[in-house]
Every structure is written in structure tokens, then in C-alpha cells.
Amino acid sequence: MAQTPDFLSDRKSVSRWAGVSLADSILTNNARRRAQRRFLAPSIASRQKISGLRLGERKLLQMVVDWVVVTGGALIILSQSDRNYAAGSVALSLLALSVLWLFFADALDAYKVPIMMKRFHNAYSGAKVLLVTITAYVLFAWLTGGFLPVVRPRISETIAVLFLIVPLLIGRAAVSSFLSHAPLKRRVVVVGANQDGLEMVEAITRYDGNTYEFLGYFDDTPSHSPGRKATDPLALPTTELLSVNDRIGIDQIVLANPLQTGPLVHTLSLLHEGGTQITPMFALYQDLTGRVPVSHLGDDYYVALTANIKATARTYRVVKRVMDMALALLMLLVTSPILPLIALAIRLDSPGPIFFKQVRVGRGGKIFKIMKFRSMRQDAEANTGAVWAIDGDSRITRVGRILRKSRLDEIPQLWNVLVGDMSFVGPRPERPEFDEELEREIPFYRARRAVRPGLTGWAQVSYGYGNTLRDALRKVEYDLYYIKNESLYLDLLIMLRTVSVVLKLGGK
User: Fold this and answer.
1) I want to staple 245 with a disulfide (CB 3.0 to 4.6 A). Which of 142, 165, 250, 412 is the partner?
2) How many whole angstroms separate alpha carbon 318 and alpha carbon 306?
3) What is the pLDDT of residues 270-294, one digit of tens each?
4) Which positions ≥6 away from 47 have C-beta within 8 Å?
5) At what angle do helices 155-162 and 55-79 cross, to 10 degrees?
6) Who contacts 181 (Cβ-Cβ below 8 Å, separation ≥6)?
7) R_g of the chain, CA atoms, integer Å
8) Using CA atoms, how far apart are residues 287 and 139, in angstroms rounded to an integer?
9) What is d(CA 471, CA 477) in angstroms, rounded to the nearest whole number?
10) 0.90 surpassed by pTM
11) How many CA atoms lie within 13 A of 475 on its CB side?
């Protein structure tokens, strides 16, 4: 077994150590004595500690509690009604209620672990989901009651279901308190004391600090190696992984692009056999942030591959295209009465054409012209050329500002969807001038071209607008997450969040 490095006895090194529990137990004399007592009594320190709950297990626990409260409460209310509802109708209604609850809970982030860990936020998000779910179910029941044997609740029964908000708030607050207990935290270490490791620990702390107990870094790269930076944290050698696991227990090891040597692979295999979870950095990073860390993938291009590798990819794309065409026709029909009014307002507000056409890059690098209602002056780029829009852009007209806030300027893009240049959901299409620059600066940028660009997308609802290279990088990370995980469910989720953005007048 390798000896503990000399630098760990240096008190000045404490400030450079990015770990928490393991650092405190090794780097100071008092902590060292406490750690020795702890390590000498493994039956107390680790053998009696249960394994920390994983992200999925935490979400599942909250889902079960919610389901019991909502469907159990609804079942009790219906059973006490003076109406004799058929068992089949009640079962179908509870199934519809459960599906609606899960969909809106996901759409409103009710099962994001950082939210679940805070009692007030967890309870508040549950209340929002309950109100939206009940509203959606009432509409569903009255619209489909003619051909589906679902329960159409009376006003008194609907009000009674609304009172389920009380046990729901109590239940979600109780789950938050339960999950915050230290024994349930996952004890995690990061293999790779480099920039990747630093960003991984930052994500753990920022997005899920109450779920994980970060123990420290492990790395075999010498501190004086040209590959190490002065700002990189101190780390134990990976040969210490087994001994640390024996002493205090490790629930999860995150691999932040370390050098995969034979001894390390052997050590990881032994730990995996013992029940320790081994996770690549990009996998946990995606789960926590909802984006792919393109700056830290190295040559791992397979991480950015699209859903084309899925067996159901062709079916999904055919169904999505049919839905795009049907929805585009429906929205053009619904908005047709206001189109002349918008055109008149644009014409009276400023000179120039009503519609604005601009070249964009689509699927496979195909060039097409996007259509929008004109929201800027006709000579907006006469002196500057192609530039990103900014907050408070003076080029935007008075009517244009209203159109952008409400997203009404994008109605003509329904034609682009109809003819197949775009989809409703996908990465936002860029102008060729920006596309070439971003391709040079951002790794895996071209992966966005594997799918049709969209009116809205995961990047738009998760990050919003951006006008810098850093913003573009973040949006590409969200786009790649969507491309890797694209599905009809995710598309519906994004469209629902887009409706929320539009209602809040979140456009710019």
C-alpha cells in the first residue's frame, strides 16, 4: 500500500485541498487524531452506515409519497361521494390523474433533487403541480367524458381534491427533512485532480450539495508534472482508494478524465465488485445540470452522438414530422385572424417590409431562409454587419419589442416547419457567419446539425438568450443533451415550458 504523501502533513495545504470530510480528517493534527479513532473503529465509522441514496432513489421516494397522497386522497373522496362510480371509471380516472401528475411534476421541476432538498421549495413546487394537474384533469374529463368512461368531478369534489394540498405539503416537507439526514448522503470521491474534477465538484456543490458528501480527490499525476497546474487541488494517489473505502466507505467514484492505467482499472474493478458505483464525469454532470460538458469530453465523440443510434430513431422522426406538420397547420389556422393586424402595426410603425428573411444553417448544414415578422429597423445591420442582438437593442422598433416579448414575431416560422426546414423542437438555427465561428471555437458544435433546428428547444427553455461565446458554449451543451435524449416526451416537456416562457413575456 502506498504511503500517505508528505504534503498532507502541511497545514498550509489545507486551503488548497478541495475536499471536505477526508481533507479535514487528514490535514490537521486534531482531525488526524479524531480520524485515527474513527478508522480504528470501522464498525462505528462505516460498517454501520447505510449506503447513501442515489439520485434516482431520492426521486422515486418523493414520487411514491406524492402518488399515495394524490391518488389515495382522490380515491377516498370518490368513495365518500353520493354517486356510485363504477370501479373501472375510478381506476381509469386515477390512472389519468397519475399520468398528468408525473408529466406536470417533471415540467415544473418538482423532482429536481436540489429543489427536493429544500423543504419550502419542495412543498411549494408540489402545490403548483397539484393546482395545474387538477385543472388539466377537469378539462380532460369534460372534453373526453363523452367517449371515455372517466369520472367527471362535480365542483364539490374538485374543491375537496384541492384540499389535498395540505397533506401534500406535509408529505413533501417530511421527505425533504428525511433526505437531508447525513447518513443518507452519498459519499463521493473524484478521480482526477484537474480542471474536469474541479468543475465536477463545483456542479456537485452547486446543484446537489445536500445529496453528496464530497470526500476528496485522487490522482496519480505528480504535482510537478507539466500537465498539472498550480491551481489544481492536492490529491491522494489512487492506490489509497481501497484503504479509504475500507476505513470510511465510498459510495460513488466519479472519473474526471483520469489516466486509465492498469492498476487503477484493477482497483476500480475491486471497488465495483464491492458495490461502489463507478460513474464517468460527463454522466453525472448531465444528470445534475441537464447539459453535456463539451469542454471536458476530450476525444470521446461517442458521448455527443445523436439518437440515430437508437433502434426506434426512424419511428420517432416520422412521428415527430407528422406532429410538426399537423401542429403547424393548426397554429396557422388559429393565429390567422391576428396576422393582418400584426402586419398593419409593423407597416405603420416603421418603413420597410413586413416580413424579414434571414439565411440560417439547418440539418446537415443545409442553408435555408427563416421567416419572421420584422422587429428591427430596415437598416439594422447596414453599418455593423452580422452581430448578435443585445438587451435593450436600439435597432428594435416599438412594435418589434412587443412582438419579441410575446414571441409573435416567430409566427411566420410555422411555414418553415411546414415545409421541413425546421421542427417545433430542436437547436436554434444560427446564421452562417456565426455558425462558422462557433464551429471553430466550440467542440462538437457540428453535432447540432444532426437534427432539424427548432422554434424552441432545451437550450432556449433552460438557458434563454445569449450574446457571447460563453453563452453559445452553454447553449451547445444543452443542445447536445437534447440530441442525446430526444424523445416525444422530452419534446412535449419543452413545448410546455415554452408556453410558460411565452405567458411570462420572456422573449427579448
Assistant:
1) 250
2) 16
3) 888 888 889 888 888 888 888 887 7
4) none
5) 140
6) none
7) 27
8) 33
9) 10
10) no
11) 22
